[in-house]
UniProtKB/TrEMBL annotation, chains A, B:
It comes from the Bacteria. It holds the Pfam family GFO_IDH_MocA. GO terms for molecular function: nucleotide binding. Signal peptide: none annotated. It comes from Paracoccus isoporae. The lineage of its organism: Bacteria, Pseudomonadati, Pseudomonadota, Alphaproteobacteria, Rhodobacterales. Residues 7-114 form the Gfo/Idh/MocA-like oxidoreductase N-terminal domain. This is D-galactose 1-dehydrogenase.
Length: 307, 307
């Protein structure tokens, strides 16, 4: 079968350089044929500053991958689909649920593939954790997702603005893992959102789900960072650490490796498969849980935050 | 075909007395066989204070209609479905999106009908408005939904608490009409939420949607109340007033009547049809737009509110 071929990357920031560009370079399926970015460029690749111009100039680029913050992403996604190209979206797939449903409908009407990616689901040990949990009875679950916003999003004010999702920008990765590995659907029972007095989006959140599952999300973690999912079951204790990359069963290493370098290659392999099959993959479950947290959450005003 | 038969009503408050009880009394399909409420009773109908007790004592009651606020509704809905009874839900169908999806799944597994009602969609002139708009090009739309919280929800603090949805409790009626009559899917672009300094949920909201459609929702309206939807199209002006009950085309009355007394009878007729057909009807679109408003909305702190 023919390789999916030429791909363009829109939004050349940290995540594009750290993950997307190396994943495409290592892929047997894809060639990075162009970039679109106001400031960023990748050496050896034709760089555009305007998306519509790139789409018009490079008709052989069949697929476009967007690495933009959620708010400006919709217009770009629409432009890609309107031009009849396949579309790959960084998480979260949009600023609102409605816009993702609109993109799905457009992709269907245009006969192209759309892939709303959840990179953490591709972490090394997620599939093994899912297999281990299947058939076991979960008695309690605890998610701890604590990272330093200054380290991972230096100066990115948009993340704490309305629509930026705040601590749910990383926290949605935990929710994408949970919704993948748990056999039952998750239901949010309560949410406490800590919002800095000078910001709109929460910098920390504590969530309670049905089935005695809770989550502690915090963007103010200095020093060691934690991305852990732990379950106590009727047949032992599972810990998924390092954002899904390391598995421990009853405290003993049981798989995975301490690296996230496999996540994006897996996403690009999956995108190639979707394009070959004429299929799409849009799962809104993690984003619906975030929307539920905003809908149901009690807001506490906390100390002002400055980068 | 056999009539759907005995129905129980859970939550005997204002909306149950004003709308549900008369609609059931007038229905050829239903007999009000029991009520469940801590304090409320309907004369001539057996009253229970505990739902599980009623479900156990009255096995011939095949359908249960819930008139409870969104937060306590889930446990009651689960109990109804677990007991293998058909379920009818007041709007909004839950406190979170996830819980509605869980109820849908339970109903499917139990082989019973679930109906997430949107009473405003049954207003007199909604269907006529939909027909009139179909094929016309909408140039601009304006929703004005202004009512007095003290008149319609006297002392109901829950409505302004976290999870109570605030002004979206009535506003979701407007969104249920919009999502019914518009040919295209609505996308929220921005939301401004006014939250009283002593409350958690917005008391007013201004929304901007794609396609030059905007909404002005306000719970602080004294004097005349307004529930209007207006569209300027390429072929005239449509106004749907009184919550969907009165239609005007280019300023001239074109149908409907100034009464909401037809909405609940239509819902109970539809529920009977769903039960007869072994079907369900759960449309999350209005609630997803509310969740989007909370997700994307900018919050402004406004004057404290007391009933």
């Amino acid at each position: 079968m023919a390789a999916p071929g030429q791909i363009a990357l829109v939004g050349i920031g940290k995540i594009a350089r750290d993950q997307h560009v190396p994943a495409i370079a290592a892929s047997p399926d894809w060639t990075l044929a162009a970039t679109v970015s106001r400031n960023g460029r990748i050496e050896g690749v034709e760089g555009f500053t305007d998306l519509d111009e790139m789409l018009a100039a490079r008709p052989k680029i069949g697929t476009v991958s967007l690495c933009l913050p959620p708010v400006p992403r919709f217009a770009a996604a629409q432009a890609v689909l309107r031009a009849g190209r396949h579309l790959m979206l960084e998480k979260p797939p949009g600023a609102t649920l409605a816009e993702v449903r609109i993109l799905e409908e457009m992709a269907r009407a245009q006969g192209v593939s759309i892939f709303a990616t959840w990179h953490s689901r591709e972490a090394e040990a997620v599939a093994a954790a899912k297999r281990w949990l299947s058939g076991r009875e979960i008695r309690e679950g605890r998610i701890t997702w604590r990272e330093d916003i200054r380290k991972w999003h230096p100066g990115q004010d948009w993340i704490l603005e309305a629509g930026g999702m705040g601590v749910f920008d990383p926290g949605i990765n935990a929710l994408s893992i949970l919704t993948e590995i748990l056999p039952q659907k998750l239901r949010l029972i309560s949410a406490d959102l800590d919002v800095p007095e000078n910001r709109q989006a929460p910098i920390a959140a504590r969530l309670e789900f049905g089935g005695r599952i809770s989550a502690d999300l915090d963007f103010r973690q200095e020093g060691p960072q934690t991305w852990d999912v732990e379950f106590q079951t009727d047949a032992g204790h599972l810990a998924l650490r390092m954002g899904g990359n390391v598995l421990e069963i009853d405290g003993t290493p049981a798989g995975g490796e301490n690296s996230i370098m496999g996540e994006y290659p897996a996403l690009y392999a999956r995108m190639a498969e979707l394009v070959r099959d004429g299929a799409s993959d849009v799962d809104l479950a993690p984003m619906m849980l975030v929307a539920d947290a905003f809908l149901l959450g009690r807001r506490n005003v906390v100390e002002a935050f400055a980068f």
